[in-house]
UniProtKB/TrEMBL annotation:
Domain Chemokine interleukin-8-like: 30-89
Polar residues bias spans: 102-119
Name of the protein in question: C-C motif chemokine 24
InterPro entries in the cross-refs: Chemokine_b/g/d, Chemokine_IL8-like_dom, Interleukin_8-like_sf
Amino acid sequence: MAGLATLGASLLLLSLCAHRIDPAGSVPIPSSCCMSFISKQVPENRVVSYQLSSASVCPLAGVIFTTRKRQKFCGNPRQHWVQKYMKKLDARRKTASPGVRTMSTKAPVQGYPANTTSI
C-alpha cells in the first residue's frame, strides 16, 4: 500500500516538473508580442496609446495599440492607418508634455503656524 502511495506522489511530482521544463532551444515569448494583426481598422478616437513589438524578440514586428477600455490589439506597421495613428498619438504626447511640466511645479501651501510643510 505504501508503494502505491509513493508511486502516485512521484507521478504527481513528475507531471508538475514536466509542466515547467521548456524544450531545448525554445525562447519564451513576452506577453507584449504580436502573434497576428487585426484585419480591420479600429476607430481612431478609441485608441489612446501604442507600443512597438520588436521582431528580434517576438515572432512579428507590430504595433500594439491600447484603447480607452484598456483593450489591446496589434496593427501591421506597414499599413497606412497604423502609421497615421502612431503619428497622431506622438503629436498628442508632445503637446501634452509641456503642459504637464508647468502643472507639476508646486508652490508652498499656507497652513497653520504649527504646520510649515510645503507641497
